[in-house]
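Lecture 7 notes: from sequence to structure.

We start with a single chain of 277 residues. Read the sequence below before looking at the structure.
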Amino acid sequence: MKGLTRVDHDGKRMYGWLVRAYGGGKTFSKYFSDKKYGGKEKAREIAVAYLEKMTAEVQAQFADFKPRQNMPGYRTVPGTSNDSGLVGIHRCETVSRGKSVKYWAATWKEDGRPKDKTFYFHDGFRTEEEARKMAIAWRAQKVRELEEASDKKSPKADEDFHKPRTRLISWVSGLTIEDWSPYLRRVNTDTTKTVKKREPFTPKRLKELVQFLGVTAAHFDWDEVDFEFGRGIFAGDIRSRCFWNKDGLRTDVLLDSQGRLLIHQGVEPDPYYLQEN
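Now the structure, written as tokens:
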């Protein structure tokens, strides 16, 4: 059912339904856990009823918007990027002219603009595994092209490729980031770091961070950030921050005692996001 997603995660003991509707380029969502709402089937009934009500309200609120203005700023199949384990590689399913369409997509950015390439699969055309490998190869080639273009612009690129052009002083008020680790990692969300509270988060701050990282930022998908949900402040660690994308994946921006930045992005929806959103 469009807008309804099943969440089953044994590791985090998360079982429930996530509902979402889109309007005005925004996402409206709510999570219904089996435990809280009387079991899997009962929680689904309540989630479906809420989804129908929420969808009608959103459609009425943004009735004057053009169809393109109501589209979400990211792909609508939640958690599909986890199927590949790679950033910028997504398995997608949609409906076109009444028929189900499935494909793997590669996404990247050039000159600050999002780009994508799709590889469809179906019986008699190509297998899903072939489409997946083609998407991975395509994105890898695009990342290499970006790196090579960066190298040509800088004679000393081999020496300072992993060094920022300038220090970053506005990410956290009063702190200066001197350097960053080239090992930007996709990992399980660090549950030992708990979010104490949230603060406003702006596209400007994220843009400064991406510019600071340089071409290596292409290894992460920054276009799906949920700015409305805000930025998280960890308990016991005022130097670091985290933020989430609209699928609930949490990105930790960690600052060590030497002023070096480390970035870890979770591969599963963060329970905090699902519970609080």
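Confidence is low (pLDDT under 50) at residues 72-83, 154-165. Keep this in mind for problem set 3.
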